[in-house]
């Protein structure tokens, strides 16, 4: 017992070292940006480019803490690591010349190598790896395996304990033995053990205790997938404009057809970055990826490409990541498959020809990729062909392909992103109007719902299209008889692309925790009915479950374009595993793994992240106004634009007129509200009960409408734009304060982005507010908001400032002093600092006011031009 007691005692010491910030992400009194820490962390590597994502493993800085970790990780024991080689189709699978990464043959090898790399780095010493530790296992060993691979695991973790964590779960446990002890990381499968390994490493990466562990984890959702849109909406390509194209590559993370200097870098050659991606996905529990764009090119179904896909699948397989493909509904007519092609007349989803063709193609794929997941289908959407072109509906089409895949154990992910203008004048109602009746349909056997068991309907979180904030899609919970997959967008198409720092964890948390108020057949409220409960199957008892993220991976050095976009991939993966996790906690983990474990530094970066999405929603699309983006590119504002079709146009969504702003979807308007369950239906139908953040999704809000703050809608609206920008100013300044603690390259890259971010946020504010003003006819609100202040010069108070302005003029009488003698903040909690006084008249003074908003700190830098004049 002695040694173990010693561990415990030392851990008490560790705990006192751990900053309380680990747990208090949301409960801060917002302070000024922290003063830079005295010593740069070991991770502050000036040349580092972000290419290891959150799996970099720089040494634990504190020597005392490092020593204690060393005692808890003296050696790595993975018995029979090579025992179960995963399937490998590609004989000549090989890494690129000069690769840093390497191919492994089993998931236990992946686990062993990750532990080796991770502990060597974190503990700053060579931690020995052994297959056969001898008896007894050394104190401090970390033992990884399954009951099948490892007698030690079998001895250490009772079968009943492991039984509870299922196929992909894990147990991480400290085993006390005599005076010492060791740690066991166990899964029922090798992939489960791999997930447990990452969980163990994460404890060290985030400086948590690793003694007295007793962790049991299993995923809440079975299929945790990415959709890879290759080069579309990709902001992580490695050339200057972010779209790729450098060195013959097209910007995509995976090379199938690179040319020129990169011609030798196509699959089956495996690039380092694929393995980094595989490790990163496994570290969060993502277990599948649809390789190609939803607007699918049939080339991915050709034999030559299948060979390449098989190579990719081979490389990813040890990491528990399977592949799938997006398909085009009319692929059978493509001459590239000659002589095995169909005519259009044969595209009857009930016909043997159609089903047979898809079955043959899928079987061909399965021969090369035995764990191939299935197909993602975008049909009758945005110009893609589908069953409706041939007289059938979505249910017929989905079931036709489903039937072809069923004997192969594969699944169809049929997307519900459809908005046929003939269905309803309100785009947001269309998907449910098309899919709802298919779900309600009574079948010959008396059951309800036509969609087959091996088909998921894959639905975006909101009814429009990945806006920064939307109400949840009304289909969640209302498709009782159909498997539903939730689709989230990780790539930041509408959330700042690769310029704006926007951490989307809080948005997904809001979505997943939204109460749908779903009811049972008798109208009683379901016990579990949040969106997450629907998606994980507990609400309505669906056995198969799925969540899908549209990925942000490209060929940029840091893989995601903006360094902080890595956090979105990370948070998606962790939430896909367990959607109840707190987004602030996940941000904290990611920051510690990626940037720094110094308390104040980590804390500042976490604070920058946690409010960033709410700020973005504020300066882009506040109070529930949807889609004000310039057509197509979806980055800049263009509220006055009418573009090709109504439902792609900002004016269609904003409905600006002299009465007010917003789209009436209450019973007096399109009545989208009626598509929700009764409680939400009522709530959204009434402007007085609609949450303000969703106000303009459901109502045409009068300019003078009284808001909760007491302000008019117009004042509140302008205030939202302003506080959004003020948060970005705070973020930019907070980042500047971290310079001594962050490696030079990444620091500079983020700084440059934050400068552009602030300028673009201002552009959003000014473009939108100027346009709305034409309709509201109301004066600009002055001196409102948490960062409002007035100043006293020469005994006179000057206020009435429009917070959208950059500078203000103060007249100073001849002979009087231009000195600011007092600053009066409107909000008593706000702090101020006179940054500089005017040296004379004319002259310039600067006052910084730091205020507080519900989502974080705000900074307004008032620039005063002192000019000659009378007061
Ligand atoms: C929209 C994108 C478009 C995608 C579409 C989709 O602008 O490029 O193809 O979603 O989800 O957001 O299919």
Automatic annotation (TrEMBL):
Keyword annotations from UniProtKB, A to Z: Carbohydrate metabolism, Glycosidase, Hydrolase, Polysaccharide degradation, Signal, Xylan degradation
Family: Belongs to the glycosyl hydrolase 67 family.
InterPro entries: A-glucoronidase_C_sf, GH, Glyco_hydro_67_aGlcAse_N, Glyco_hydro_67_C, Glyco_hydro_67_cat, Hex-like_dom2
Alpha glucuronidase N-terminal domain: residues covered: 53-199
Transmembrane stretches, start-end: none
The Glycosyl hydrolase family 67 C-terminal domain, residue ranges: 560-782
Name this protein carries in UniProt: Xylan alpha-1,2-glucuronidase
Domain Glycosyl hydrolase family 67 catalytic residue range list: 204-558
Signal peptide bounds: 1-29
Classification via SUPFAM superfamilies: (Trans)glycosidases, beta-N-acetylhexosaminidase-like domain
Gene3D superfamilies: Alpha-glucuronidase, C-terminal domain, Chitobiase/beta-hexosaminidase domain 2-like, Glycosidases
EC number: 3.2.1.131
Pfam family, one: Glyco_hydro_67M
Quaternary structure and interacting proteins, as annotated: Homodimer.
Catalyzed reactions: Hydrolysis of (1->2)-alpha-D-(4-O-methyl)glucuronosyl links in the main chain of hardwood xylans
Top class in the EC scheme: hydrolase
Species whose genome carries this gene: Streptomyces lycii
């Amino acid at each position: 017992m002695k040694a173990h007691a010693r561990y415990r005692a030392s851990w008490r010491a560790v705990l006192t070292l751990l900053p309380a910030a680990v747990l208090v992400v949301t409960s801060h009194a917002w302070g000024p940006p922290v003063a830079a820490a005295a010593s740069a962390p070991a991770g502050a590597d000036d040349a580092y480019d972000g290419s290891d994502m959150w799996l970099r493993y720089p040494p634990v800085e504190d020597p005392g803490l490092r020593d204690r970790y060393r005692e808890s990780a003296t050696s790595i024991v993975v018995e029979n690591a090579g025992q179960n080689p995963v399937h490998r189709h590609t004989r000549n699978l090989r890494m690129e010349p000069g690769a840093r990464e390497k191919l492994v043959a089993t998931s236990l090898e992946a686990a062993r190598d990750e532990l080796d790399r991770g502990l060597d780095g974190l503990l700053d010493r060579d931690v020995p790896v052994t297959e056969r530790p001898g008896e007894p296992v050394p104190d401090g060993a970390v033992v990884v395996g399954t009951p099948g691979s490892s007698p030690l695991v079998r001895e250490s973790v009772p079968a009943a304990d492991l039984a509870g964590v299922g196929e992909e779960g894990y147990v991480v446990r400290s085993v006390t033995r005599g005076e010492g002890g060791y740690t066991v990381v166990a899964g029922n499968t090798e992939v489960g053990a791999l997930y447990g390994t990452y969980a163990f490493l994460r404890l060290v990466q985030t400086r948590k205790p690793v003694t007295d562990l007793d962790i049991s984890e299993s995923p809440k959702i079975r299929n945790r997938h990415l959709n890879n849109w290759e080069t579309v909406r990709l902001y992580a390509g490695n050339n200057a404009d972010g779209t790729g194209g450098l060195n013959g590559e097209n910007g995509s993370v995976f090379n199938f057809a690179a040319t020129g200097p990169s011609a030798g870098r196509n699959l089956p050659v495996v690039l380092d970055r694929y393995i980094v991606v595989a490790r990163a996905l496994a570290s969060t529990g993502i277990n599948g990826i649809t390789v190609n764009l939803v607007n699918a090119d049939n080339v991915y179904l050709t034999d030559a490409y299948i060979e390449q896909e098989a190579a990719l699948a081979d490389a990813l397989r040890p990491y528990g990541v399977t592949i799938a493909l997006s398909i085009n509904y009319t692929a059978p007519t493509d001459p590239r498959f000659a002589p095995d092609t169909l005519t259009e007349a044969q595209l009857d989803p009930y016909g043997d020809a159609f089903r047979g063709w898809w079955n043959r193609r899928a079987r061909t794929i399965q021969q090369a990729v035995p764990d191939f997941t299935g197909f993602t289908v975008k049909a009758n959407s945005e110009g893609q062909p589908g069953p409706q072109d041939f007289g059938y509906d979505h249910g017929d089409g989905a079931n036709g392909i489903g039937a072809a895949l069923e004997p192969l154990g594969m699944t169809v992910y049929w997307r519900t992103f459809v908005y046929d203008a003939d269905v309803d004048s309100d785009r947001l109602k269309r998907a449910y109007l098309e899919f709802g009746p298919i779900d309600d349909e009574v079948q010959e056997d008396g059951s309800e719902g036509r969609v087959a068991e091996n088909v998921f309907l894959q639905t975006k979180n909101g009814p429009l299209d990945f806006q920064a904030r939307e109400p949840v899609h009304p289909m969640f919970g209302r498709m009782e008889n159909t498997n539903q997959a939730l689709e989230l967008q990780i790539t930041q198409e509408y959330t700042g692309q690769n310029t704006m720092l926007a951490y989307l964890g809080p948005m997904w948390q809001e979505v997943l925790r939204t109460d749908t108020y779903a009811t049972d057949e008798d109208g009683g409220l379901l016990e579990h009915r949040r969106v997450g409960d629907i998606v994980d199957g507990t609400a309505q008892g669906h056995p198969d479950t799925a969540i899908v993220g549209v990925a942000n991976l490209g060929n940029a050095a840091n893989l995601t374009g903006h360094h902080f976009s890595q956090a979105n991939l990370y948070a998606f993966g962790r939430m896909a595993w367990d959607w109840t996790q707190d987004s602030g906690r996940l941000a904290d983990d990611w920051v510690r793994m990626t940037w720094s474990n110094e308390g104040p530094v980590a804390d500042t970066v976490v604070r920058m992240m946690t409010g960033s999405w709410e700020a973005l929603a504020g300066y882009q699309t506040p109070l529930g106004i949807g889609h004000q983006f310039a057509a197509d590119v979806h980055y800049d504002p263009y509220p006055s634009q009418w573009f090709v079709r109504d439902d792609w146009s900002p004016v269609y969504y904003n409905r600006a007129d002299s009465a007010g702003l917003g789209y009436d979807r209450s019973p007096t308007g399109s009545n989208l509200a009626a598509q929700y369950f009764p409680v939400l239906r009522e709530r959204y139908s009434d402007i007085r009960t609609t949450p303000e953040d969703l106000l303009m999704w459901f109502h045409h809000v009068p300019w003078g409408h009284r808001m909760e703050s007491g302000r008019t809608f117009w004042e509140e609206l302008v205030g939202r734009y302003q506080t959004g920008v003020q948060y970005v100013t705070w973020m930019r300044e907070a980042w500047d304060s971290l310079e001594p603690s962050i490696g030079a390259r990444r620091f500079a890259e983020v700084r440059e982005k934050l400068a552009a971010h602030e300028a673009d946020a201002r552009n959003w504010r000014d473009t939108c507010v100027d346009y709305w003003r034409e309709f509201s006819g109301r004066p600009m609100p002055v001196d409102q908001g948490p960062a409002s202040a007035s100043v006293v010069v020469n005994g006179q108070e000057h206020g009435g400032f429009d917070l959208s302005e950059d500078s203000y003029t103060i007249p100073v009488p001849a002979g009087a002093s231009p000195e600011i003698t007092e600053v009066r903040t409107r909000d008593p909690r706000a702090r101020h600092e006179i940054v500089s006084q005017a040296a004379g008249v004319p002259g310039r003074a600067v006052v910084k006011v730091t205020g507080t908003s519900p989502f974080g700190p705000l900074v307004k830098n008032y620039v005063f031009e002192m000019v000659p004049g009378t007061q």
